[in-house]
Amino acid sequence: MDFNDTPEEAAFRKEANDFLSKHLELKNGAKPRASGESALARAKAWQKTKAENKFAQITWPKEWGGRGGTSMEAVIWGQEESKYDAPTGPFAIGLGMCIPTVIAFGSDEHKKKYVQKALFGEEIWCQLFSEPSAGSDVAGLKTRAVKDGDEWVINGQKVWTSGAHYSDYGILLVRTDPKVPKHKGLTMFIVNMKQPGVEVRPIHQASGGREFNEVYFTDVRIPDSDRLGEVGAGWKVALVTLMNERLAVGGSPGPDWGEIMAYAKTAGTMDDQAFREKLADWYVAAQGYKLTKFRTQTALSRGQTPGPENSIGKIITANHLQDICNSAIEMQDHYGIITEADRMPADAIFQQSFMWAPGLRIAGGTDEILKNIIAERVLGLPQDVRVDKDLAFDEMKSG
Known about the structure:
Layout: H1 7-23, H2 37-52, H3 71-81, H4 89-105, H5 108-119, E1 125-128, E2 144-148, E3 151-158, E4 169-175, E5 186-192, E6 198-202, E7 213-223, E8 227-228, H6 234-248, H7 257-267, H8 273-301, H9 311-331, H10 349-360, H11 367-378
Parallel strand pairs: 1-4
Antiparallel strand pairs: 2-3, 3-7, 4-5, 5-8, 6-7
């Protein structure tokens, strides 16, 4: 692995850092996740500033408002931006997953209509895949689309849709043919989240936030011109989105070994041998993940495409975060149940992240799904037996 920047990469890193230091403050430890109208307005303003200065999407072509840079420059930008208090959350799904899918499968009209507005923070997108009855089996979805002239009529429900309550558009995966096996009867569409028949219901999370949503579709009409890919080829389109999703959610923004070590010093628990052993384990895991990311970085610098080993990152970091926060709360004894930011150490970041961490183990593929990917595509182990692989969807039993 080569950990050193080339002269060109070093110059870009300096340019990126100079720009960031003029507009943002450096992070000072992990902070609670911001939400609400003011946080959304700040995120939109930062997105516009990045786009105006060609830092919004490093690898996108210049004609779409991007920089036309390399994948390695995109990695460098991500590394540098992560050091600052950058409000990027509302755009991670749209620019990281949805718009790349629109670019890959949409028409020229789609690209002209949606890409630049999303890039400049004028429109926000969400991803509408998961359903209550399907679980981690995306292809088991039941939301139906029936053709009516030049339009499709959509009825069904999606769940766990991040940001749907403030999104303008979404990419929607639905079933257009129940007479074929489940992976073959799907189609992807662009949906206007503000149109009649679309109802968004925020889910009150254990952490106190309302970032996820249920979304109901009742006789929603979508023109066939807003279809992405061919009819029945939605699974192929969805795989592009899912690949981008698992790269996007690979890391964790919550507290790491550094934050809990700093707190342990003030709490007087650094003399505890059992805690020091756990701290060493967390440090080793963090360094291992860091070196794994360097492998991805090296592959990109050589013009190679990173493989399915990227699934390792989310398994490590999500469980890592949960363990660290649980230990910090135990350290606080009975005071650990207090969640008010103004009353607790580190603005109650350990309490908030502990309640949020289990969701990270589901988002972008559950631990079990990602372990299957690693087993099958990295280690070359046999695939699970899939008895419904060639069965028509409407013949499958459901309870």
